[in-house]
Amino acid sequence: MAHAPKLTTSNLPTLSEDAASATSSPARGKEMRQNLLGKLRPPPLVHSWEFYHDRQDRKKPSQEESASASSQAQPNYEDRLVKLNDITDVRDFWETFNNFDTTRLPLRDSVHLFHKGVKPVWEDKRNVHGGSWTFRVPKAQGAEFWKEICMMAIGEKLQAAVESNRKTFVDDICGISLSVRFTSVLVQIWNRDGNHKAAIDRLLETVIEELPEQLTPKEGTYYYKKHDEHAGYQKPEGVPAKPTIIEETNTVPKADDGAKAHE
């Protein structure tokens, strides 16, 4: 009757009691597991991002609410914003992207992917002097167009388009947005300096160059507009007349207009 082969260790050195104890101890096992997880961790993104959902209030207002709303100059837009996730690495991004179906967003709802610490509102201190490119995309192409813009954003291709060697105000990409309309979606790219024409032009060139041919926007379906040119813009108090440098705080440590529906 055949016997199963046996592993012989006659020529191997004997493991000391201390070494055996260190190898089999729970603490050692935990340390090895942490080291392994560290090596398997997905690569971090250059910037941290925050993913927001702007859900329109679809509740029919009562007479009291209607009277109250009519007495206010503008609704509090920020009350509709809900932050859904923080995104610091590639895995965070895909978990968020794959679990939020933008094709099912109700009419006039929006989603925003913004640098950490920057809110998707025109009056945020990083946005007040900025503007955005708006692309009107057919709904059938909206999800794929949005995906491509997201990849350009987290891959820093959009940021590279607006960077310059200016010593005063440094331009940045603030974030990107998608808003649902009747037959289309509006995809926006927000930058901090609405007067930085060279960067604004390069930003459009980058988008057109990076998009697949079937998603290339047609003439007349995109435009750039500064935030303070919108009818609903409310200039915050204490904002300087000219842009100033704002210290960067969102870098990851190494190891029908606009999404803002004032109107």
UniProtKB/TrEMBL annotation:
GO terms for molecular function: RNA 7-methylguanosine cap binding; translation initiation factor activity. One of its GO terms (cellular component) is eukaryotic translation initiation factor 4F complex. Residues 50-63, 254-263 have a biased composition (Basic and acidic residues). One of its GO terms (biological process) is regulation of translation. Residues 1-75, 232-263 are annotated as: Disordered. Pfam families: IF4E. Residues 64-74 have a biased composition (Low complexity). Keywords: Initiation factor, Protein biosynthesis, RNA-binding, Translation regulation. Transmembrane segments: none annotated. Coiled coil: none annotated. The keyword Cell membrane does not apply. InterPro entries: TIF_eIF4e-like (IPR023398), TIF_eIF_4E (IPR001040). Belongs to the eukaryotic initiation factor 4E family. This is Translation initiation factor eIF4e. It comes from Viridothelium virens.
